[in-house]
Amino acid sequence: MAGSRGRGRAEHGEKRGRAACAGRPSALLAALACAAFAAGILAAPRPAVADTADDLDAYLEEAFAASGIPGMAVAVVDADGIDYLRAFGDVESLDDTFIVGSLSKSMTSLAIQQLVDQGRVDLDAPAALYAPGYGVPLEVTVRSLLNQTSGFGYYESLLGATVGESFGSFSYANANYDLLGRIVEAVSGMDYADYLRIYVFDAAGMDDASVDGAGEARSGSAAGHRNWFGLAVADGFAHAEDDDAWGGQASGYVRASIRDMANYLRLYLNSGGEVASSEAIDRMVWDRVPDEGGDTFYGMGWTTFDDEGGDLVMSHDGDVENYVARMVVIPGLDVGVVLLADENDALGGNAAFWDIGDGVLSIALGGDADAGEVAWDAGAARAYHARLDAAYALAMCAAAAPLALRRRWARRLAAADGPERGVRAVMAVGLHAGVPVWVASLPGGLGMRARDFADFYPEQALVGGVCVALLLAGGAAKALAARHVLLSGSPRARRPGRPAAQGGSGRGRRT
Fold it and tell me: Which of 276, 391, 430, 470 is most buried, by CB atoms within 10 Å?
C-alpha cells in the first residue's frame, strides 16, 4: 500500500495475553554520543503501550515529513513479539528490504558462534588456519577479527588488508568481518549467503532477508538513494561484490525488511532463541574490548555500554552508499528497536535520521521529543548542500576559464620574450598538470581509494572529474598554441596595448 511522506503504514502486533497498538519504540542510540542521554531516560517509568503508540505515530509523522528522507521503517519488539511496525514515504510494504550496512556484522558473528558451539571453529586459532590465501599473519586470531583488534586499516579491502600499528587494540575495519565470512564458507562448505539463509535467516523468521548480490532476492526492495547536490536520487547504484571491495557481504551487505529485523532483534531478548545458544549470545556481548576513543566497548558484532542505572545497552549503526540503519537492544528493559532508511546523505551526515531515532527512544521510555530538532537539522543539511553547490559552480567556472581564454593566452605568449615564455610555460604546467594530479590524489589523502570515494561521495567525484577534464583540455589547447608560437619564431615586435610604430623608411617609433 503506497503512502505519502508523513503518512506511513503501520502494523500493530498481538502480544501474548494482550492486544497492543505499538510499544516502546524505536530509537537510535549513537553509541558514543548518546550514552549520557540514555542514562537519563532509561530510568524513567515506561508508558502504556497504546499511549506510546499514539505518541509515536504523532511524532513520527511530523518528524518524517520534516526530515527529507525518501523512505523509512521503524520496529519495536520485546521478547514476546513485535509491538510496533511501521513504514513511511516510498517504502511500499513492510516486507520491502533495505541493505542494513554494518548491522550485518552481528549476523556474521552469529554464524561464527554457531560454528564455535559445534566445535568447528576455535576463537583463539589463527584466522589463516581456516581461510588461508589472504596473507594474514598467524597472530591474527578469529577472536581478533570479531573484536576488531587485528590491526587492519579502516579503508582497506580484504585483499589489501595488512596488520598495522593498531594490532591488539580496537580499530574498526570491514576487512575483519569480510574475512570472517570467508571462514564461514571454508568451515561450512557453503556459500556465505546460503549459510545465512538456512541457519540465520530462516531460523530467526527473517523470511525476506538475503545477501545483496547473491542470487535472487526473496522480496521486493526499497530503492536506495544517494545524495546528489542536495537531492536524494535513486540512481540504481549497486555495490561491487568481490574481495577488493571496501566492505563485502559479510561486513555490510545483508538485505532485510523491517519485519525481518524485528524478528532478528527478538532472538537477543530470548537468549538466542532457536538460532544460537545463550553462551553464544553471551560471547557476542561480553567478550568485548574497550574503544579507547570513547566510553563504549566492542564485543563480537555489537557496540555495548552500561547506562548509569547499570542496564546493558547493545547497539550498532550501519551505512552503505545508499542506505542507513540503526539497531538497539536493551535486554534489562526487554526492548529492541530498529530503524532503516533508504537514503545515505554521506556529506550531510544523516543528522535528521539520527534525530528521529533519539526522539523515538525518548517517547518510548516516557520522555518527550521535539520534531523541530529534526526540521532544524534537515534545514541545516540543505543549507550546507547549497553552499557546496555554489562552491562546485565556482570551481568548475575556474577550471573552464583557461580553456575559454586560450586565445588571449596564446596572444600573450606570442608577444612575450624568452624568459617570460618560460615563466608562462611553468605556470601552465602547474595549472594544467599539477592541479589535476592534486585533485586526483585527494581521496588517497583521506585514506580512501578513488573508486570508494566516488561510491560514497558521487557529486564530489563528478565535480572533481569535470574540473580535471576542463583543466586537461585547457592544457592541451595551450600546448597546441605554444607549439605554433615556437614554430613561428621570435616574439612579435609589438605587445598588446603598445603604440604602433609609424610606417615609412627611416622613421622610428614615437617615444
Answer: 276
Decide: 15 and 80 in contact? Cβ < 8 Å. yes
Query: Hey, is 424 helix, strand or coil?
Result: helix
Q: Which residue has the cell 609609424?
A: 502
C-alpha cell at 314: 547493545
- The answer to whether 89 and 274 have CB atoms below 8 angstroms apart is no
**DSSP three-state, residue 319:** strand
Q: Is 203 exposed, middle or buried (0-12, 13-18, 19+ CB in 10 A)?
A: middle
Is the CB of residue 123 less than 8 Å from the CB of residue 146? yes
Cα→Cα distances 84→21, 24, 65, 362, Å: 7, 8, 19, 15
What's the gap between Cα 82 and its chain centre?
28
Give me the pLDDT at residue 59, please.
93
Beta-carbon contacts of 282 under 8 Å, excluding residues fewer than 6 positions away, are: none
Q: Where do runs of H (alpha helix) occur along 93-243?
A: 104-117, 127-130, 142-147, 174-188, 192-196, 202-204
What contacts 24+ positions apart, CB below 8 Å, involve 413-417? Answer: 413/481, 413/482, 413/485, 414/485, 414/488, 414/491, 414/492, 415/491, 415/492, 415/494, 415/495, 415/496, 416/491, 417/491
pLDDT for res 360? 84
- 48: which DSSP letter? P
Q: Which residues contact 201 (CB under 8 A, 6 or more apart)?
A: 207, 209, 210, 260
Per-residue pLDDT, 270: 97
* Residue 342: closest CA among 104, 108, 92, 155: 92
- Chunked into runs of 10 residues, the chain (511 residues) has average pLDDT values of 38 34 34 41 55 86 96 93 93 96 98 98 98 95 98 95 95 97 97 96 96 77 96 94 92 97 97 96 97 91 88 94 95 91 96 91 82 96 97 96 88 82 84 91 92 95 96 90 74 49 44 37
Compute the distance between CA of residue 465 and CA of residue 436 in angstroms, rounded to an integer.
9
Query: Quick one: cell of 437?
Result: 594530479
Q: What is residue 425's predicted lDDT score, i.e. its pLDDT? A: 80
Torsion of CA 101, 107, 109, 112, to 10 degrees: -140
CA–chain centroid gap for 101, Å, is: 7
